[in-house]
Amino acid sequence: EEYREFGSPPIDPRFRDKEWHQKQMELDRTDPRHNPNLNRDQSDPEFWYSAARKPLSKAILRSEQYWEKRRELWAKQYARVNDLNQKREMIADLLEDCSNEAKRLLAPILKYSVTQTVLGDMVVRAIDSDQAFHEVLEAPDSLAVLEGLRRKIDAGGEFAAAALLDEYEARRGLLAQSKAKALAGPGPEERKVSDVQTVAAMLNWGQKCKKDGMLEWE
Predict the structure, then answer these.
(1) Where does the record place Basic and acidic residues bias (predicted)?
(2) Structural domain count, the chain
(3) Is there a single domain that holds both residue 55 and residue 127?
(4) How does pLDDT run across 23-51, given as a tens digit for each residue?
């Protein structure tokens, strides 16, 4: 039940039944209708396709895919946490050069992720424009953004900070996409040429997927 909350694929109750496994093993040894690989050579590609279609094999594959996605998510989260921690330390050092007014403005909201994210973008902007961080932060437009954050967070607390972070991330994502499209520009699509072996392999794979789908619906 605990794993299902995180999207884990359900486990067939039969897989916990020893008698069911014994029966399956007996059928695998004696019944070619149950086990198409009974009289098939292992060098035949269909041997491994058929083995992968068995219920337990499919359950194992789904479980491996689930945990692989979880590992990728954990790795991304770990990298992001490390990145945020490094940025926090860097921002804390850079704020030492800022005015007392800016420090007083940021002190109550510095703990929120949205503030750290906005300040991190200001660090990037300062590097790109070859300016000092305090010059970018104390520019009128930057101060206006920070003052707006301060007012909304003072009024709404953590919920307002979380909503502001979601809104800021969404806008930043759209801006990044538009910049990427502008840099890429319209270009002619290259024609892809495949050799006979590649085409044959793709056709065989398509036939295999078709057969898997038909067996799944039987």
Answers:
(1) 13-34
(2) 2
(3) no
(4) 888 888 888 888 888 888 888 888 888 88
